[in-house]
Design a protein that fits this description.
Length: 156
């Protein structure tokens, strides 16, 4: 296993497979890894490529989940959390890029009916629509399920 070249957030796709293939997983009750806050880091910049790479990560994880984890498998929920995380990051980043770039990124996701349908099933609800509400500086995104609005991602 190795990271794919030219992708942001490649560890997102790597971690579930690496853990699934491990013979033993241990727990250490100490902080061994931490992030520094760097205002110029990749995690503090936003681009269409990052959105597309988050979509790609969700798509790849979904494909890996279909191969390596049946619904009864203990790893299925683990893959599911990573897919949900990748899509959440996709939406969080999308509200911070230009409208035309956001439209292109959304179109990519909208065309992937299989992934969207699977995510709807995993949440136990049908996703009816994505409502985009205009605001002065930022375009907040709401994911609408059956009867209620869930997850306002950002609001100013």
């Amino acid at each position: 296993m190795q990271f794919e070249k030219g992708l942001y957030f490649e560890d997102l796709m790597f971690t579930p497979l690496a853990l699934r293939q491990a013979h033993t997983i241990g727990y250490i009750d100490k902080v061994l890894y931490f992030y520094r806050d760097n205002p110029n880091s990749i995690t503090n910049t936003f681009s269409k490529k990052q959105c597309v790479d988050f979509y790609y990560a969700a798509r790849k994880l979904y494909g890996d989940q279909q191969i390596y984890a049946t619904r009864e498998d203990k790893w299925f929920p683990f893959f599911q959390r990573y897919i949900d995380g990748a899509l959440s990051c996709f939406f969080n980043n999308s509200i911070k890029i230009s409208r035309s770039a956001r439209r292109e990124a959304y179109n990519l996701l909208k065309q992937d009916k299989e992934l969207l349908q699977a995510q709807s099933k995993s949440m136990g609800r049908n996703i009816k629509s994505f409502l985009l509400c205009h605001a002065k500086a930022i375009l907040p995104l709401y994911i609408v399920f059956e009867d209620s609005v869930i997850m306002p991602l950002k609001r100013k």
